[in-house]
Amino acid sequence: MQADPQxxxxxxxxxxxxxxxIACYRFANPGGVPVIVVHGTFSSHEGCTGLARxxxxxxxxxxxxxxxxxxxxxxxxxxxxxxxxxxxxxxAVLDLVRAETGKRSAFFxxxxxxxxxxxxxxxxxPDLANGSVRGLVTMAAQAHQAAxxxxxxxxxxEMARYLETINVIPPRQLGIGxxxxxxxxxxxxxxxxxxxxxxxxxxxxYLPALKALHFPLLCxxxxxxxxxxxxxxxxxxxxxxxxxxxTVRVCGLKQGFAEDYEHGxxxxxxxxxxxxxxxxADWVTKRAEIA
Length: 291
Description:
By secondary structure, the chain is an alpha/beta fold. The chain is built from nine helices and ten strands. It has a single domain, classed as Alpha/Beta hydrolase fold, catalytic domain (Rossmann fold, 3-Layer(aba) Sandwich).
């Protein structure tokens, strides 16, 4: 039975350790396995609504969140980076979902930077993550290999210089996104890619720390995304995990998909609805059936 697309999800607020309220939207199936859907930069939960409803159609108890500073979430009083979203927003939402559902663990289904922040939180808290994450799906997620081509390095270098002059990037300012974004957060992404590192603001090295994570992983790479999340970067991020149940798939024409998916279209497009969403839903279903 498919969820009525006209029915609005139920809104909740997760309170972070620093006091910021994070909006969460529940496509409720009480008793179902919880799935937390996490968007990427310049976006909000609205960009993930189609996929969230598809997962709810399968009986999952789906929670789509807004990062701090966008959508229905509160904005902090100071600039923030990826580390803040990972350290504050992700555990607050997981705590809320666990409290409301009574379930100890949940799946995470993520796009772009959403996969990074979940991985960053998990890397800093491996014991907790291995016990509370039933599986992680990443789509077009990479942190440190977007500047391999000279033209891309130049573009990212210019972006980094611009970001040093502002605090908030307005929607569409860089030609992408529907939501404002933290300049500090995007400057961190620029630095990772220019320096080919994946270090926290405190120097924490995320890539080697991912090896301690053993929950199932599905990494989907957008075959036509050669800049934001190129194949090599996505593979490097995914292969750093210590997961035994570990699947990496390139979604492109050569692999039998309808198109060479670009960064956003792997999440929200007519072809994605037909072949990406069912693949994600099936992957979650198979692992949800395992006690």
